[in-house]
């Protein structure tokens, strides 16, 4: 089963066409273990059907590359823009997000046919002389599809992990559980630090506007928080102590009846954890995953420490390993100084979400190879936890 | 395509085993035109995934026949009772109805395997000496599966008819549209009429308790209301005149933005109707379908007439043809005199729904052959209209 | 404290003007024990602020009598129709029911001023020569105000009884608790019974259309069910036994966390009951009150009996005492044969509610003297229980 | 009518007791124009009944000063803690916020009695020797009551301004409308700025942790945005152009049907604005008020500028006048470096709200004299707009 080895095989110097093809087939490889039925369902609004991800990433290329740059290109199916547009208001009406799981058609086969068609047209297009703007858009499309690859995997986990039969996704899925030793405090001196993307490589617009920030002295943990801390937090009644929580978090805990991270099941007094390989005992040495910002905050409070800001994280990140869990930071998702939205539909990519969300830094076991970087800004609403989300302490 | 011919082929004198087998395969034949994805989705709570119907009707036989009567029978899969129990509280926990569409597993293939297994065990069982009580339960199971066959078809129609691609179910589906001529008034003299099931044949418990009712003189239409009346009602602003509606119906119209029957689409000033063969112009001669009780009442008000009671319908039914549309009556669904629920789980079949619903009489194009009879009492909440529901006028 | 004696003082032969004046002042007498703040709040949608009842019953006379029949009458305040119209769609826009408790103005004093103004104009009008139609409308207005007097008292009970301070309404409120002895079965022979209003006296349109019904033999209890039965039902786990409930009722019990009648509080293992005089121990001999139709049905199931139909109740009512509790019947609220709505706004009075509700017969301690009669049809949705609702068994 | 003159009369050097008494009577003076009914209602969850504010600010003193520091003090009424606790989880159960408007009792008179009792006990207490900690708590109580004075006025505006009669609060309310001329850009050089409270005076814990921030060069408007800009924004279709809005803001606009600021009414093509003096034409020269963060952001987008951060605002504030409107900033409400919650119930004052809210700076016409300062951090959820909220542009 070759899904996750593959990520190391594509050299950075690969051509755009090579990287496109590799990205396109990686999405399909991720779906290889699925049964047709798994492609269709949407158990909660935040989780999209795998079929939809496959179609939507394809539509993105059709809409932003083939339609504007390939003379005479006619769309594969005129209704697909309606079905597979995610949220681009500039591009017309769309299926409401909560209804994606109501659509049995287009069929899975139909979507694969759509993918092949668009991939082929793109490859043909890239064989010719390609304007720089189009190259940039293909690049955006690749990174866009990589983002959806992570969602694909976390959505699959949600679909299977909330099925009463708890079926495994694969015997050799991506969830390795490194045994983490004891974390140490890394001391970072205060001063001026440069924040934001630098250099030639690809980045999203929300990373641009490199600027200096002034930080005070701080310490940051060398390792993320492990399940051991969560087990102790639970044992100490952490989910029942309002003083550890934000008011909003406390409401969430009570309204939703939360008493453990997502995918944790108590069976005969033992905590089990649903992984892509099926149910397994919670490993105290493994990094904690699937917690909301509220839980990250409460856990840090309980430990007597705090979350780092996204600037502290970026300033310190060379000094520690990261990439196994997205790490909640104490920073709200806001524009960097001088941020301006791109014109047109791509301007809707990031900017319009810059309110009411929190920044996560790092990457996770589900992030495609080469998709993250030290300046990458991931963001989610504070109650969400179906991504591989954890935390790192600071003080 | 043999689905709907089949219904005429089974003689009444067929053995129980023959009828069981025929019923079991008819459910599967109904699903033959589906793609795997169509089996899975649940666009609204009332509509169940076809896969679920196939599994649930199977579980019913396993639970009520195989488990109690076949010594040493072990269930096909221990979690299936949880997945496929519909509402029998006596039989333990179950998947909440609204969540049926979140389940990608068991797969369609898995469900067919389950069906084959249970059908085979039932056939083996029926080859031996079968206690009378078990025969009765097989009989109930057959009628139960027939009820679900109708739901299967109406749920499939909803799934496909609410897909933005509006795919057809089949080129030769069951929706024929007889051209109805002008209805005539049939005069029925007042007096005593016997109501309720008589004789040896199968019926549900809600038809029992045959009793006399006293009716006044009345007239009832020889034909159901056609689309022509609905077109006129719409043209006359019927959906915007509160005086024609129940208060509850008027709230429903406004809250849901109702302005035509279900499956009606206005395209370029013309009314189109989604049928199992795809979108077609509304045929003014065809019997009206897919209306709620509220709409039936408002339409009758607008015509200056009324709905018949279920007793009037039953008393008069020999004088007119019926079977194309379920006909809303003016009667609430209540127990007949002397009605007692059966003991045990089967007691949950009908009795516990006898509040807040209205009775429909007759049958529809989607009702399996032999499933209806003059005393049959169908019932739905007044806002529902995804069945083939129409009305017949009285005065 | 003269509120409830007063009801016996008005002889049937009193003039219309006398009865009008008496009715108007009775509404005000009912509010005498209130503090200004009590007039304003609306803890749930079904409960209206007392101030609103006082204004609405006044608006009714202004709208249906003064405006059409008094030449040159100009309305007291042009916005009051908007504020005090309840549901008459024919009469224009209105405050949405759920928002009545948001209105601090018009003030209580303003409403009393409005009442005085309208009452005076009505009295002047009745001194002159009054067309028969206007007399009828004054009559309707009196009965309308009497209906609201009952709601006034039950809404006041809800407002005070859901306040954490549990204040008493009055030391000598209307809730007497007769000690009921053991009920006996009254045998009623089957046959033809006349149902519906007869004679000259006032009745609502839903009682008209006197007609014969055919009833079987039945027995009906001489007394309503007492608190003792409810105490036993609770002790026997009645609220946790799904087999006793309608499916809809069982959902209601679980969704709302119902475990006793409304106003019952368990304190130190004893059941207390909030009355208009304050909290008191539940008296096992007193007739049960404040239960929903679902609870009435479940309690009857548990006793092994059933609710009478409204026809059985009417046929038998001379043989037993009634009037202390509204008695849930097994009948849905539907039109009598030949029922037609009145033209105009008054046509909205009853007819548009004839769906999804159940009939109650009798009267209650809160019903104004002379307001009920054997053919009176009260109706509520099956989950409501803030009226003085109980039940009588049949078999 | 002396309410708003009073604010200039209390010299800074007044004793604690003087200031306490002055604060207590100011709350009552604010309510002087109310009718009893106005004290009771709660039209939306965010708006509390005036009666509740009067009781809650009193309870705060009783709970945090009298109970711990006055030997033998017994509470005025044992149920008041339940009724008047706002959100202090450490202090036990409380009335759910949404239900405050359901409580007709304690009566307004009862609450005034409660106020007098507690104020007297406090004054007696302050005559003796008072521990420093108690002084601090009285100080907190004064500032707490001042915060509620602003809410009292904005809640009263909401209660009256959403009444269909649109009654005025007072002929000489606090809403003056200065004629603003043309704004100018104030240039602020980048560099290090000190942020946070300094010195001896009172501040809330969220202002502490004075620290340096590094800002780039920026310009900030000398005046807040006026109604003229909003009128132009509306005329230009600003409420219908999704590209100007956050995704969340756009959902809000569509879900709530927003098309103008709160309290704006279009009458015969003219925009009217409900003020505390009643309905008045929108004055184009007056500072814009009653907008959400979403609207502030969209308006700034439409102008081609942006909101200042709270740090830019604080760094620049000496160069411009402020105090007429709370000004939305681009900053999320987050803790300053080193922020720790106070121990005990007071720790719930600010810290637990530091998620999902945005910071406003300045003060408004409704802010009590002496309650604001350049480091004051006000905060609200982005959709709220019943405060006097406006914006100032930056670039
Ligand atoms: Fe996307
Ligand atoms: Fe079933
Ligand atoms: Fe009324
Ligand atoms: Fe407070």
Mean pLDDT of chain A: 94
What small molecules are bound in this structure? fe (iii) ion
Order of strands across the main sheet of chain A: 10-9-8-11
Biggest chain pair contact, residues each?
Answer: A-D, 36 and 36 residues
How much strand of chain A? 5-15%
Oligomer: homotetramer
- CA-CA gap between termini of chain A: 42 Å
* Rg over CA atoms of chain A: 21 Å
Following the backbone from N to C, one meets helices and strands of chain A in this order, namely: HHHHHEEEEHHEEEHHEEEE
In the predicted model, the low-confidence regions of chain A spanning at least 5 consecutive residues are: 1-9
Largest sheet of chain A: 4 strands, mixed
Helix content of chain A: 25-40%
DSSP E strands of chain A, number: 11
Our count of helices of chain A gives: 9
Main structural class of chain A: alpha+beta
Shape of chain A: globular
Properties at a glance:
11 strands, three-stranded antiparallel beta sheet, alpha+beta, homotetramer, four-stranded mixed beta sheet, 32% helix, binds fe (iii) ion, 9 helices, 395 residues, globular
Describe the protein's topology.
Four copies of one chain form a homotetramer.
Chain A: H1 16-31, H2 50-69, H3 80-84, H4 108-127, H5 132-161, E1 185-188, E2 191-195, E3 211-215, E4 218-221, H6 227-235, H7 247-256, E5 264-267, E6 270-275, E7 278-281, H8 293-303, H9 310-316, E8 326-332, E9 358-362, E10 378-380, E11 389-390
Parallel strand pairs in A: 8-11
Antiparallel strand pairs in A: 1-4, 2-3, 5-6, 6-7, 8-9, 9-10
Bound molecules: fe (iii) ion (FE) (4 copies).
One fe (iii) ion is lined by residues 56, 86, 144, 148 of chain A.
């Amino acid at each position: 089963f070759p899904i996750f080895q593959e990520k190391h095989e594509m050299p950075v110097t690969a051509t755009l066409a090579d990287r496109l093809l590799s990205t396109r087939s990686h999405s399909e490889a991720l779906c290889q273990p699925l049964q047709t039925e798994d492609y269709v369902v949407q158990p909660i609004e935040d989780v999209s059907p795998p079929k939809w991800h496959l179609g939507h990433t394809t539509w993105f290329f059709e809409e932003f590359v083939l339609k504007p740059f390939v003379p005479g290109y006619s769309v594969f199916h005129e209704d697909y823009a309606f079905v597979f547009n995610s949220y681009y208001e500039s591009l017309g009406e769309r299926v409401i997000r909560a209804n994606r799981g109501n659509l049995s058609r287009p069929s899975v086969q139909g979507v694969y046919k759509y993918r092949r068609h668009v991939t082929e047209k793109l490859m043909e297009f890239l064989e010719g002389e390609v304007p720089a703007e189009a190259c940039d858009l293909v690049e955006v499309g690749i990174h866009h599809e990589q983002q959806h690859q992570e969602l694909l995997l976390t959505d699959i986990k949600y679909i299977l992990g909330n099925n009463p039969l708890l079926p495994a996704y694969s015997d050799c899925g991506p969830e390795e559980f490194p045994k983490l030793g004891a974390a140490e405090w890394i001391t970072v001196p205060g001063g001026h630090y440069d924040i934001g993307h630098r250099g030639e490589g690809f980045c999203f617009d929300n990373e641009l506007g490199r600027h200096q920030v002034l930080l005070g002295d701080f310490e940051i943990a060398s390792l993320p928080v492990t399940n051991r801390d969560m087990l102790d937090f639970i044992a100490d009644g952490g989910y029942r102590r309002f003083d550890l929580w934000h008011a909003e978090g406390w409401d969430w805990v009570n309204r939703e009846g939360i008493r453990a991270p997502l995918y944790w099941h108590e069976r005969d007094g033992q905590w089990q954890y649903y992984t892509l390989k099926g149910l397994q005992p919670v490993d105290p040495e493994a990094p904690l995953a699937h917690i909301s910002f509220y839980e990250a905050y409460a856990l840090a409070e309980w430990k007597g420490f705090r979350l780092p800001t996204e600037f502290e994280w970026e300033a310190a990140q060379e000094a520690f390993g990261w990439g196994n869990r997205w790490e909640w930071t104490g920073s709200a998702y806001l524009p960097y100084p001088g941020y301006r939205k791109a014109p047109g539909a791509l301007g809707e990519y990031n900017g319009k979400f810059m309110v009411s969300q929190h920044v996560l830094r790092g990457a996770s076991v589900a992030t495609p190879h080469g998709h993250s970087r030290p300046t990458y800004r991931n963001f989610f609403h504070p109650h969400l936890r179906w991504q591989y989300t954890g935390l790192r302490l600071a003080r």
